[in-house]
Design goal:
The protein is an alpha+beta fold. Helices cover 17% and strands 26% of the residues.
């Protein structure tokens, strides 16, 4: 993309801040549970993310609120990294490289809604690609 001075707000706000940080985690006592929240995500039709999940609308869990700076979305998209999932405000929450067999990055944490009995579809999809070369397409989702 040619952005030599790209930065993240967690490292200090600069003229080229690509990731905006607004952590929802207050200071906590040792051993106390983290504060988190659920948020709706809309996936783009036909994306790898939607195919692996088995639907386009989902609700996921967040611990911190890292946001992609929409000022750079067209530039990132033109470079090949596609925003394929957005929250209710239109902020990017899932990106992927469409030409890659499995390159999906999320701002939510799939492991928080995963268990041995009901593994998160993205974790299963990653393991499918690692073992068989392509993800198995899910026909129904396991979370709402």
């Amino acid at each position: 993309m040619g952005i030599a001075d790209a930065d993240s707000e967690e490292h200090g706000s600069g003229p080229r801040t690509l990731m905006v940080t607004a952590c929802s985690l207050p200071q906590r006592e040792p051993g106390a549970a983290y504060v988190d929240r659920m948020e709706a995500v809309q996936l783009k039709h036909g994306s790898h993310a939607a195919k692996i999940f088995g639907r386009e609308a989902l609700t996921e869990e967040y611990l911190c609120n890292y946001e992609f700076n929409r000022q750079y979305q067209e530039q990132v998209d033109a470079a090949g990294l596609k925003v394929v999932g957005v929250d209710e405000r239109g902020v990017g929450r899932v990106v992927e490289l469409p030409e890659h067999r499995f390159f999906i990055a999320t701002l939510f944490l799939p492991q928080l809604r995963s268990s041995d009995a009901r593994p998160h579809p993205y974790l299963v999809g990653f393991l499918e690609v690692a073992s068989h070369g392509k993800p198995k397409v899910t026909s129904t989702a396991r979370n709402g």
